[in-house]
Amino acid sequence: MQRALVFGATGGIGQAICADLAQAGWSLYVHCSQNWQKAYTMAEGMSQKYPDQDFIPIKLDFLAKNDELKKFVNNLLPVNAVVFAQGITDYNFVSSQNMAKIDDILHINLLTPIKLTGLLEPHLIKNDYSRIVYLGSVYGGSGSAMEAVYSSSKSGLERFAQAYSREVASANLTVNVVAPGAVNTAMNSVLAPEAMEEVRGEIPVGRLAEGNDISYWVRTLLDVHSGYLTGQTIYVSGGWLI
Asked: Known Gene3D superfamilies for this protein (predicted)?
């Protein structure tokens, strides 16, 4: 049985990823950091729709201590793929940004994913093939004012994936980043409507991405036939910025 662990499954993009992977025959760990009821409801709904697959809600705070991360990984059933779709941002000038918020952004977007990757590696490489996909951002390649810390966390994720992919390529573990542009999710809803209209006008394809525009590429990277693509960042931006 193919099983993927989807971190950040209850977010806008995470929900689309789970729906796509479930349709493609994957069993899933449906992760949340806080919203347990949402994860549970998602897992229940997919279990009813795909009764031959397993859907297990699971909770982990990405600000957890190292011992908690180890315990979390040690309690997992075997997995073939891991998708890191969690992430936070904070629209602010660096000089005005709360230092604790800076710590949170770097831990949730970069440091904890790196730690979990190292812990999960022994489990993943037991398989004939395995996959890791990180959700990056167009701002990882083209830094954004007011999101300098977020941009640095996503840029760091890209370089980590590129370097780490070379460590595990011989074990048939591919490591890639899918980097969305502007997506129609709650993360972007904090922007004023006129600001979003301005962004929309800058996107060559003329619209924001929807969740399934991103999940398509995640599903493709998890496919058994994608084994020759590793260490790459795929920008799914509608031609915007990159």
From this structure: NAD(P)-binding Rossmann-like Domain (3.40.50.720)
